[in-house]
Amino acid sequence: HTLSAEIVPITVSVNSLKGKTITKKRSISIVRPLHEQQIQDAKQIYWQAKKEGEAPHYILEKGASLSAYVNALSPVKVSWEEPNDALILEVKNKTVFVKAKENGLYENLVLIATDAEGTEIRSNPISIIVDSELPSLFVNEPENKQWLSNSLYISGESEDKTALKEVSYSLDGGESWVSVSLDEEEKLEKNRSTFSKTIDISHLADGLIQLDVRAVDVAGKESQKSFALHKDTEAPSVSVVLPYSQDVVNGETTIVFDVRDEGKVAKAEYVLFERGEEEMIEVARNALDLDRFVISQIGTKEQPITNAMVFEFTDYAGNVRHLNSWDFFVEVISDLPVVEVHIPVENEIIRSDFVVSGVVYDDDGPCRIWYAIDDEEFTLLDTEYANGFSIDIPLSRMTDNEHIVTVYAEDLYGVLGEKIVRPFRVSLEEPKGSVDTPYLDKTVRDRVEISGTASDKNGIKKVEISVDNGISFADVVGTENWSYEFDTKILEGGSHVVFIKVWDNYDIEALYSSILNVDNTKPQIQLEYPEDNSTTTGMVLFSGQTTDNIGLETLYIRVKPLDSSMPAVPVEFSRFDFEPGEIINSTIDLSGLSDGFYNVELSGEDAAGNVSRVSRNIQLTKDTTLASIDILYPLTGETVQGMFNLYGQVSSEYPMQTVILFIDEQNIASVDVTDSGYFMFTLTPEELLEGSHKLEVRGIVEGTKIISSVDHYIHYTPNGPWVTIDNFIMGDFAYDRPYLEGSSGYAFTEEEMLALKDKTVSKEEKARIQAKAVDFIELSFDNGKTFKRISAKKKWRYRVENEDMAQGSYYLLVRAVMENGESAVTKTIVQIDKTPPIIKLISPEEGGRFNEQLEIAGLT
Question: What does CATH list as the number for 625-718?
């Protein structure tokens, strides 16, 4: 009566005495009578009732079956709403058997049945768990026989093919279980879950503890693991065996500990701390060898011997014994390595690459050196241990001013000595100095102030100056900005070297130089033109030279009236500036002023401000003719025949290069005016007709002004004797014994020329005509008083013996005499100059030095 009405599986197992087991499985149907109101006879599908604990799923072993009854007209056909190969359907009459083929969780299963009439019947949704395997259980922590203190940490992982229900643990042999939280999302999605939990076991006594961990799936299957654990809450007991109490130790020392524990000691460690800004900071931790007695060496590099060292002893339960106080005494100072820095000496001034060197003393032997410049990080000099050190420091690494080098030693056991600080000073470069005023291109005189600047990153101590090429030095006023005043009259005019000595605050000295141009001498001005009391129509030529030690800066003319009753000189005429130079060759135009007497003053000022002045008085008369042209030969009213030369002279303040001959107002020819101011026109019967003619010569000055000669009249006949001078123009200079050359002849009439050819003309007539030939040429030096016969040829010449003649102008008259007594005359002027020109060389000066170009200037 305890079983419900259903098909009940029965399993029978028989164990033999030999340990063999035989198992048989069967099922029985239990039928119970029901009351009428309990009978279900609706046309539907009825699933077998769930066993206790199965809700909400049916739970089957793999290969087991679940049944359902289809209350409909047979035969019946069945199928799953969603195809499922893991759950096989079989139909016997109206009973449907669902056979579990594969493990798994199958939810929302709907069975569809079709009866003999074709009516489709749908079952209520059901869920089936097919589970024939135990859940897997992996425990990562703790390990079996693990030592514990007051807490137990468990962690692991469990997995099931269907679904996990829970993981739990027990500390009382399974009498009570405590669930461990699982990751629900992981459990649902993957049928697996990790778990972890820290368990407080402080209420348990020290000793052996049993831990059981189990995993249960939804089918009720479970897996279990058991662990034997040791609880130990007492730290190891430690005592110092060596050094003995009250011992004084330093350097490498053996320390021995007696270590005891109720459980098992896991590790022993040496720990070193240093004081940080807010708390102690661990800087070293070394493991020690474990034994009944723990033995270690302290006072080594790895394990320095200090009052800040700590020894820690930890058992397997995690209990730690800290040992940081001692009955022996640690004398650290006597064990420290000592450094002596020999170079650089204290406050030494460094100006090049340098070396930091010294020695190290330590009772443990050679040491290593650590060093730092200023605030840099400390650098290990070398990995090798030594008794001395030498550190190369390049100057490029340094800056000006004061620095420090800090050195300390580390002995063989890592003991660090005290830091030795050595100050030194650096000067990367010499102090700078310069002369700012006066400028190099400025010339000074009288008292002058020389000023300048000095600078150095180490500061300026003093500045001195020398104006005698470094023979002696004098103090200036100031340091970074300094000045010095003196009278330049003690120096010769010219350029002088000024030396400046500058010292910085480290007594580093530097020498600089500059140029001082001194000129206390006024410039000299020699003015050749204009001459004093000269007269001009407007243009005034200034010609001369200037001399100065250094050179003129300005050269100018000032014009002032001599008569106070004259109007003031307009501003534009009051000053004329010339280009400064050694040669004066400039012209000014005063034609804009009123006629009268004026003082023209030429002033020259050099670079030092020295001034010299030269003045001239001149008379301005603008009505004076600008220029004149005179016809000198032939004379007015004179009769000329054949070919002849017309001579004339030009006088002008302004250049006149060319003159033009007009005959009877007709332009005949133009010629150039010679350097002596004379001109010559050669005229023949081709230019002139027989009769009287008016001759006029014209020239142009200042571009537009026409100057004309006085009208000149002559009588001309194309027939008759003639003579010309061909190679000399009137006014030419005779030098080097030149020849005076010319031509002569007789111009026949046309009738005479025909008569000479006519055979009917008598011999007497022809002889008369032929007697019109040149007989001789003669020359007069005294205007015709006396003559000297010089030639008997038409083409004649005469050597002028200028070396035997006095200097001056010679007025020559040349006459050609015909055989019949007729004659022709021409005149000229020849000049002889025996005075050599004067050449005055102004520059270069004697003994001067020049480069690439040489400028020569002078006066003639």
Answer: 2.60.40.10
Amino acid at 632: L
Q: Which amino acid is at 715?
A: H
Do the domains spanning 35-130 and 625-718 agree at the CATH topology level? yes
Instruction: Give residue limits of the domains in the chain.
Output: 35-130, 136-231, 237-333, 336-426, 432-518, 524-620, 625-718, 727-860
Class of 432-518 in CATH: mainly beta
SS3 138: strand
Q: Give tens-digit pLDDT for 284-339.
A: 888 888 887 888 887 777 777 777 788 888 888 778 888 888 777 776 666 678 88
Strands 432-437 and 447-455: antiparallel
CA distance linking residue 381 with residue 246, whole number of Å: 39
Using an 8 Å Cβ cutoff, are 425 and 349 in contact? yes
φ, ψ of residue 705 to 5 degrees: the values are -85, 125
3-state class percentages of the chain: helix first, strand second, coil last, to nearest 5: 5, 55, 40
Give me the pLDDT at residue 333, please. Answer: 60
Q: How far is CA 343 from CA 70, 256, 356, 394, in A?
A: 112, 45, 5, 15
Q: Is the pLDDT of residue 108 over 80?
A: yes
> Predicted confidence band at 695 (pLDDT cuts at 50, 70, 90)?
very high
Q: pLDDT per residue over 588-630, tens digit each?
A: 888 888 888 888 888 888 877 888 898 899 888 877 666 889 9
Cα Rg, the chain, nearest whole Å: 72
Residue 335 main-chain phi, psi, to 5 deg: -100, -5
Cα separation, 781 vs 787, in Å, equals 7
Give the model's pLDDT for residue 672: 93
DSSP string, 729-746: -TTPBP-SS-EEEEEEEE
Closest CA to 192 of 182, 206, 202: 182
785 in helix, strand or coil? Answer: coil
pLDDT band, very low/low/confident/very high, at 482 (cuts 50, 70, 90): very high
Q: Is 543 exposed, middle or buried (0-12, 13-18, 19+ CB in 10 A)?
A: middle
CB atoms within 10 A of CB 616: 19
Half-sphere CA count of 321, side-chain side, radius 13 A: 22
Please state which CATH class domain 237-333 belongs to. Answer: mainly beta
Residues 6+ away with beta carbon under 8 Å from 351: 395, 426, 427, 428, 508
The tens digit of pLDDT for each residue in 68-85 reads: 888 888 888 888 888 888
Q: Rounded to a whole number, what is the distance in angstroms from the first to the last CA of the chain?
A: 166
* Number of continuous H segments (helices) and E segments (strands) in the chain: 4, 71
pLDDT value of residue 52: 66
Selection from 616, 622, 615, 599 nearest residue 536 by Cα = 622
Query: Looking at domain 524-620, does it have CATH number 1.10.10.10?
Result: no
CA-nearest of 602, 607, 617, 605 to 544 is: 602
Cβ atoms 590, 557 nearer than 8 A: no
| Alpha helices (H) along 566-655 | 571-574
Calpha distance 284→133 (Å, rounded): 54
Are residues 599 and 560 in contact, defined by beta-carbon separation less than 8 angstroms?
Answer: yes
Task: Give Cβ neighbours of residue 564 (< 8 Å, ≥ 6 apart).
Answer: none
What is the distance between the alpha carbons of residues 624 and 845, in angstroms, rounded to a whole number? 43
Structure tokens at 202: 């402080």
Helix (H, G, I), strand (E, B), or coil: what is residue 197? strand
Nearest CA-CA partner of 738 in 828, 659, 678, 658: 828
Pick the CATH number of 336-426 from 3.30.565.10, 2.60.40.10, 3.40.1050.10, 3.10.310.10: 2.60.40.10
Measure the CA–CA gap between 154 and 214, rounded to whole angstroms.
Answer: 12
Q: In this model, does residue 572 exceed pLDDT 90?
A: no
* Residue carrying structure tokens 């000198």: 632
| Cα 742 from Cα 751, distance rounded (Å) | 28
